[in-house]
Amino acid sequence: MKKTHIIAIVIIAVAIGAIISTLSDSSTYADFAEAFNNPGEEFHVVGKLDKSAAIDYNPNNDPNLTVFTMIDNQGRSSKVYLSKSKPQDFERSESVVLIGKVEGDAFYANNILMKCPSKYSEQNQMKAGNG
Amino acid sequence: MDINYIGEHAAPGQLGNWFVQLSFVFSILAAVAYYLGERNRDTSWLQLGRWLFRLHSASVVAVIGLLFYLILQQYFEYDYVWKHSNRAMEAKYVFACFWEGQEGSFLLWMFWHLVIGNLLIWRNKSWEGPVLSVLSLVQVFLSSMLLGLYVAGQKIGSNPFLLIRELPENLGLPWTQSPNYLSLIPQFADGRGLNPLLQNYWMTIHPPTLFLGFALTVVPFCFAIAGLWRGDLTGWMKAARSWSFSGVLVLGVGILMGGAWAYEALNFGGFWAWDPVENASLVPWLTLVGAAHLIIVNLRKPQSVFLALFLSMISFILVLYSTFLTRSGVLGDSSVHSFTDNGMTGQLLLYLLTFLLLMTALLIRRPLERVLYSGISASMLVITAVMEQKVALILVFLFFSALALVRAYRSDYRQVTEEEKLWSREFWMFIGSLVLGLSALQISFSTSTPVINLLIKPFSETFGQWGQQWNWEWLIKLGKANFAPPSNAIQHYNKWQIPFAFLTAMLIAATQFFAYRDSDIKKVLSRLAMPFGLAVILTIGLGYAFQFSWSQPNLLVLLFSGIFAVTANAHYWLVVVKKANKMLGSSMAHLGFALILVGALISAGKSVKLSENKTTFDITSLGKDFKNNEDMLLFKGDTVAMGDYFVTYKGKKTEGINQLYQVDYFSPKPNRYLKGQLVLSQGVVFECTREHVPSSNFLNDQANYWKVVDQPSSEQLRQTKLWNAGRAGDLAFTLYPRIQMNAKFGNVPEPSTKHFLHKDIYTHIRWAELERDTVDAEGYFKPQDYQISKGDTIFSARTLIVFEGMNLASDPTEFRLLPSDLVAVAHLKIIQADKQEIHANPIFILRDNNLVIPDVTEVKEAGLKIAISEINPAENKVSFSIAEHQDNTKEFVVMQAIMFPGINVLWIGIVLMGLGTLIAVLQRIRASLKNER
Questions:
Q1: Does A67 reach chain B within 8 Å, measured CB to CB?
Q2: How crowded is residue B893: how many other Cβ atoms within 10 Å of its Cβ?
Q3: Partner residues linked to B824 by β-bridges
């Protein structure tokens, strides 16, 4: 067997390994319905912070716990326990991605990604001046 | 209908527009002229091409100059100026504001291409035709990104000279018709401004460095195409060699600069986070390093030519791909700093696929097959552009191209490639490039999950059905086409990249000990023995010092390989080549790279989160695996043990837009407990029986010095403190982590770091009360209303308030009121933290049956003001209005502190790698200049 063949086999093996590992390490984007149907399984849930509900962050009790309500893109809302301090500017966030799983009747997130409106997207604020 | 707008400066914009179009036209003409010059071997065409390229350059420079002019003149009627600058901005940020936006960064990229192009015209006459025609083609695409035209409903480019009233979303709005709109609408007086987060020197130096790095990848791309075009597979490499290593240098420095920025000024909590945007710039660097090394191999003797060509070209294509990923909006939810879709996704994609097609077509060496492939693929792309179902066709195109590449590799590169000897330097350099390529492949693949979702989508139904039919879980999952990136990205990438890093380090260590062609393996091994032994000893030492353990063998093995690469390169330069000047650059660069690996491994792998959650609340009660010990709460004035230190949050001050939080770090000194002192340990109160200096563990001391207090009194409880072996000693240092207050862009925390020789202490604020509510003259907050019934309890900040009951006062004159008044007296029991009870009796006065006389009872000891605001006999409820004194709630911050050991090794490595590569490139350039003379 020539060296090139061995190398080719190694490359193919590594490539297949990388693909499979990526697919198995990646969770899936989902909505609450799916997350609640598969409790204990990890999901990324995309949605919006329910600004009408209370955002509970009481650092006196626990600086690493924020409790709030999120509405997913299908309109279903759920209570969320986030094991992190309340993110800066949380109230201003436009869209939120939670990473975590369902246990019981709530979603337990260990991480959160936030999109704030003004950071990169370019809103046209001139509209206020229509006249 | 022409409106004469008052106060608008339209002329420079129109001029700019004109130059944008000129630059586009000149780049097309230059590409064509150079193409004809090369095809017909006609110097007059080349001459023409040269002048056209210079005209193109001049147009782009004019565009850049005009955009700078608009920003400096603060013409806020221009969208770009309005979005990226404002009057308050300091002049030194004018560069940062120039390239903050998409158009500006494209201009920066084009500018570097021009510099490179003109240098190539000057230095590389023999390759000018093909190289410059490819570069001009690249410029055609880049300058089209600025056109801002609409062709058949499709937006082509985005023009930086657009007035706000010309924005598509504003077209036809009434205000755009009024001639004096600039003075009518106050928003035009000042711009939105540069994001304050970007107002620092990093934003001035990082983008130009990174974009120069990106731009330099175009050189090996153009040369490789030129070589294939002329059928001279290796002749171009001599000219491209120094360019490629310059790219390695600049792109490497640019990426690491981004890491340093993230570490110093952003709150990523580290140097590298495997964020998609970071990955997108790392991947082309990896392939470029592989390409540059294969160029060295091929300059000796044609060997693995295909891979050399492929890596040289794919680096540039990966730069395009990274542009596509970060700017098209496909990354969407997966990255914290991606751009949103700007409507040019299709254009970026077309750009990417066209160059992919060009690369593949030229790698095919049989004329007929090349023509066939080009024809079929080009028509596929054209159909894709007009068709609805784009994804499927793109997938077919990619598959077809991959097949064509495999076929070309198998049939067209046989005759020039001969099998290398196992113990030859070129073989192991080839393996090294392959490892880099595979590493790049893995990172790209994992970063591309959003793209993969898009590609799978058209087939998702089919996959889903098949999956159901055969009951294959993974196929059903695949069919959903909604893969999110790995939840634990760092873990996922480390799993793959640690083995790749290990292999790379081992190859860096050993490869140069082999001679070209073939070498005596025994001799190689005997030379490697010394550095190997030294590396083993150093690994044991460092592993012990930084607490590496066998429970993580992968980290230990990587540590060894990194150290081995350091010792081997030092040994090679000092002993084997006897400090030869010629080898200094490469040895230093390799040593630097190895130090980067070692430094990254130690600082990231052995970083410690010092700030733990020490509160009593059991977070795990909320759910399994739900534990987070990262952040800690610090009340103002309290001193708390944290890692090897004691910390105190002293207070905050405001400096400009920053809120600075002063955190004092104290070094510990041994504690001393006196007889009678009370401590809390494991939830039990102990009393000290004998004066002693505590050992490191309470359990060791318990039998000898402590006795349990069974039922501590409230007075005793008040005196009880947490047991601690040490106490705060001298002030070690003070850090000022900050929060940048910004109403427009959001408040952003910025860390503060104390640098030691062997470690960094990094601190940042996770949460803070940004502003306290206002208090009245006596220091009370606004009262809050609580409606309760008898027996209920109110939780105030520091006390429990129990409502015990209510009665009518028998003698109102007791309260110095009229005898005819009706006085209700509430009985409240206020329980303080030390269990002491205070009784308060707020009263409610009714005169003539309807007039209520307000009366507020102040309970000074508890810092409370209580009043009865309403009595509701029907529901048997009473409303109390309670105000708390500001001293009841101490100000606090939630902060995170991380210790990064050995991060200086990383910085030293970066400097050495940069310097080494620079030395090597400069030596090579000087040598080639000498040859010419």
A1: no
A2: 24
A3: B808, B844
Residues of A in contact with B767 (CB under 8 A): 57, 59, 63, 85-86, 88
| pLDDT for residue B302 | 83
Which chain A residues are Cβ-neighbours of B613 within 8 angstroms?
62-64
Rounded Cα gap, residues B275 and A36, in angstroms: 29
Choose the weakest-confidence range: B532-541, B768-777, B781-790, B798-807. Answer: B768-777
Contacts of B482 in chain A (CB under 8 A): 28-30
Determine how β-strand B759-768 pairs with β-strand B752-755: antiparallel
Q: Are B269 and B737 in contact (CB under 8 A)?
A: no
Q: Looking at the predicted structure, is the pLDDT value of residue B699 above 80?
A: yes
Strand partners, B763: B752, B897
Q: Does position B177 have pLDDT exceeding 60, yes or no?
A: yes
Q: Taking CB atoms and an 8 Å cutoff, what residues of chain B touch A23? A: 474, 477-478, 483
Q: Residue A61: which pLDDT band, with cuts at 50, 70 and 90?
A: low
Interval B103-116 mean pLDDT: 96
**Structure-token pair, residue B390:** 């784009």
Residue B874 φ/ψ, nearest 5 degrees = -60, -45
Cα B652 to Cα A35: distance, rounded to the nearest angstrom: 42
Over residues B480-513, the pLDDT tens digits come to 777 887 878 888 999 899 999 999 999 999 999 9
Residue-wise pLDDT for B316-331, tens only, equals: 999 999 988 887 777 7
**Chains A & B: contacts with CB separation below 8 Å:** 178
Residue B933 burial by Cβ neighbours in a 10 Å radius (0-12, 13-18, 19+): exposed
* Gap from A80 CA to chain B (nearest CA, Å): 11
Report the residue of chain B nearest A40, measured CA to CA: B624
pLDDT of residue B587: 95
Q: pLDDT tens digits, residue range B40-83?
A: 999 999 999 999 999 999 999 999 999 999 999 999 999 999 98
Please report, for chain A, how many H helices and E strands are present, in that order. Answer: 2, 7
Instruction: Give the helix/strand (H/E) hosting B706.
Output: strand B706-708
Find, among B736, B592, B772, the residue nearest to B662 by Cα.
Answer: B736
Phi, psi of B607 (to 5 degrees): -70, 150
**Residues with Cβ < 8 Å from B487, sequence gap 6 or more?**
A25, A26, A27, A42, A44, A99, A111
The structure's pTM equals 0.87
Three-class SS string for B722-788? ECCCEEEEEEEEEECCEEECCCCCCCEEECEEEECCCEEEEEEEEEECCCCCCCCCCCECCCEEEEE
Cα A20 to the center of its chain, rounded Å: 22
Instruction: Give me the pLDDT at residue B558, please.
Output: 95
Tell me how far apart the alpha carbons of residues B408 and B401 are, in angstroms, rounded to a whole number. Answer: 10
| CA atoms within a 13 Å half-sphere pointing along the CA-CB vector of B617 | 19
- Record the tokens describing residue B882, joined without a space: 């309670």
Amino acid at B593: F
> Rounded to an integer, what distance in angstroms lies between the CA atom of residue B466 and that of residue B481?
14
**Per-residue pLDDT at B465 exceeds 90:** no
Contacts of A126 in chain B (CB under 8 A): 164, 170, 185, 187
Interface test with B, best of A4, A34, A64, A84 (most B CBs within 10 A): A64
Q: Which two tokens stand for residue B398?
A: 């990619």
Return d(Cα B244, Cα B296) in angstroms, integer.
Answer: 10
Give the span between the Cα atoms of B96 and B80, in whole angstroms. Answer: 13
Q: Where are the alpha helices (DSSP H) in B145-268?
A: 181-184, 201-216, 218-230, 237-265
The letter for the amino acid at B306 is: F
Q: What is the pLDDT of residues B215-228, one digit of tens each?
A: 999 999 999 999 99
Please answer whether residues B715 and B708 qualify as being in contact, where contact means their C-beta atoms are separated by less than 8 angstroms.
no
Interface predicted TM-score of the whole assembly (ipTM), two decimals: 0.84
Q: Residues, chain B, total?
A: 933
CB contact under 8 A, A26 and B419: no
Asked whether the predicted pLDDT for residue B589 surpasses 90, the reply is: yes
